[in-house]
TrEMBL record:
PANTHER family: D-ALLOSE-BINDING PERIPLASMIC PROTEIN-RELATED (PTHR46847). This is Substrate-binding domain-containing protein. Belongs to the bacterial solute-binding protein 2 family. Keywords: Signal. The keyword Signal applies. Gene3D superfamilies: 3.40.50.2300.
Length: 373
């Protein structure tokens, strides 16, 4: 091995051990604080018809808002958009594209923060909004501390809340849920990827999980995947780390995994940034062809990595449906038809791999990114 490469890897491992906390996952599905989507719909069967009609609106041509607006509708967006994944940027683009098509007069203030780590900044932004409340707040919910922030806003009638990238209603909000939960169900995506890995390794595999930040997204994307794989014959989890949806931390964790487990077959990555960090480490160590890595979401960076043969496969979200759904929900409120908005909108996935034809991918891209490309 090249001496420079050896020392770089050695220093990265030491730096990782002493500066980046990581944890072994308990693997118990931590869903006590929320309902899985299928369970919620079983408890509220009336939501199925409302949801079906709403999905039709999202997938159809926009019907312009015809009522007169005395004032612009004020919208505040706070997203963890400072990451490689373009999901959040595309969400804003598709939201604005649909709002314009709907002919809604609006003022948008949007703020991007770091994924999983800017809790204080997010709290400050939400606190400032309470002094000058917007008509609609679009936020995400992952860390436990987010619940208190959102609960204080939901409890007032000044601002309607849309929770992005979450499709499992929070039990603590049952008396008064947000206007809409919107996104692509993490549990469904995790099961799709688990089935793909099972087909890739029918006799079982040795694998690792790279979680994001401790919270809702990691629990559903990671623990649901583990639960599915634990029922697969001879599959064994060799290690799992929280890497805060951070590319560099995922890179260091992967180096550690490769050092400790030379028999590793694949790494299950819980996000785009995590997958790219793992690929960085696999490229550096010459293990890219021996250890598979999935993507999560199917944004531009992932599709490019698959095209170059760096990533094996991903679940691709029909991305722009999330922004369209948010705009349609706002239109319903402005029309006095809030009852037409379902509690949850969950968009569709497609599986993309290195065998997906360019013609099919072009068709999926034109659908998924119809506003944001």
């Amino acid at each position: 091995m090249n001496v420079y490469l050896f020392f770089r890897r050695f220093l990265c491992v030491i730096f990782f051990l002493f500066t980046v906390p990581f944890y072994t996952k308990s693997h118990a599905q931590d869903n006590q604080g929320y309902w899985l989507l299928e369970d919620y719909l079983e408890m509220h069967p009336e939501q199925v018809k409302i949801s079906d009609r709403f999905v039709s609106r999202v997938r159809s041509t926009a019907l312009a808002f015809s009522k007169h607006q005395q004032d612009s509708t004020k919208v505040l967006i706070v997203y963890p958009g400072l990451q490689v994944s373009d999901y959040w940027r595309r969400s804003v683009a598709s939201f604005e594209g649909r709002m314009r098509e709907l002919n809604i007069d609006y003022e948008l203030s949007s703020h991007f923060t770091k994924a999983g780590s800017d809790i204080e900044l997010q709290g400050k932004l939400l606190g400032q909004s309470r002094g000058n409340p917007p008509d609609f707040l679009i936020f995400t919910l992952d860390a436990t501390r987010h619940k208190g922030m959102i609960d204080r806003i939901i409890s007032t009638d000044e601002t309607q809340v849309i929770l992005q990238n979450i499709t499992s209603p929070i039990k603590a909000f049952e008396k008064k849920q947000p206007l809409l939960y919107v996104g692509f169900d993490h549990g469904i995506g995790a099961r799709i990827l688990a089935e793909r890995y099972k087909s890739e390794y029918p006799a079982g595999a040795n694998y690792a999980i790279l979680y994001g930040t401790q919270g809702y997204v990691s629990s559903l994307r990671g623990d649901v995947f583990y639960h599915e794989m634990s029922q697969h014959l001879n599959s064994k989890l060799l290690g799992s780390y929280y890497v805060d949806f951070d590319r560099e931390k995922a890179y260091r964790a992967t180096l550690e995994l490769l050092r400790e487990h030379p028999d590793l077959d694949f790494i299950y990555a819980c996000s785009t940034d995590i997958a790219i960090g793992a690929i960085d480490a696999l490229k550096e160590t010459g293990r890219l062809r021996q250890v598979k890595v999935n993507g999560w979401g199917g944004g531009s960076e992932e599709l490019s990595a698959i095209e170059k043969g760096l990533m094996d496969f991903t679940v691709m979200r029909m991305n722009d449906d999330n922004g369209v759904a948010m705009a349609e929900a706002i239109k319903s409120v402005l029309e006095g038809k809030e009852a037409h908005v379902p509690v949850v909108f969950s968009g569709d996935f497609r599986t993309v791999d290195q065998e997906t034809t360019s013609e099919r991918l072009l068709l999926w891209r034109s659908d998924a990114f119809r506003y944001s490309d």
